[in-house]
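I hope you will forgive my troubling you with a question about protein structure. The matter concerns a single protein, recorded as an amino acid sequence and a row of C-alpha cells. Please examine both parts with care and let me know of anything in them that strikes you as inconsistent. Here, with my thanks, is the record as I have it:
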Amino acid sequence: MLFGVFYLMLLAAVAVLVAVSIRPREIAAPGQSANAGKVVLTVEGHGRRTTFDMSTLQALPQHIHKVSTPWYLRPVSFQGPLLRDVLATADVSGTRIAAVAVSDFTADIPFEHTEKYDVIVALRMDGRPLPARDKGPLFVIYPYDNLPQKEREESFGLSVWQLDVLRVE
C-alpha cells in the first residue's frame, strides 16, 4: 500500500514537471501568423540592414502563383509580395542576391530576375501561413509554369525555403 501511494506521488510529480516544461511553439488566431511582430526576414545591402516582420510583408501588395513544383504532388498556390517590392522597400539594388535559408543554404539569385520574372516571397500556401516544418515561414517562389524549361529547372535551385536573409551585392 505504501509503495502504491509513493508511486502515485511520483507519477503526479512527473506530470507536473512535464506540464510546466511544455512551451507552445506557434500559437496564433486562425488566419493569423504566429510570426507577427517577430523578425522573419533581414535584407542586407549598401551597408544597411532592414528587417521585416510578417505584418510588414503582408502589408506589401500580394501576388499569387499557382504552380507545379517538384516538392508537391499537385499544383499549389503560393501568395506573397514580389521580391522586387521587398528589395525596393529596403531600398537596395545590385547585381546579385544571396538568398540564405535558416540552415545556411544559399542560392545566388541574379538581380535581373527580380525584374524579368514575378518572383515572390511566399508567406502562404493554399491560403494558409507556411509552417516552418513545411518550408516556411518564407519561401522564394518563381512563376515556374510560365518559364521556359531550362529556366524552370534553374529556378527550382534558386527557390530557397525557410528564407532568413537576402544579401544584395
Q: What stands out?
A: The first strand starts at residue 39 and ends at 45. The longest helix spans residues 2-21. The chain has five helices and eleven strands. Residues 12-34 have pLDDT under 50 and may be disordered.
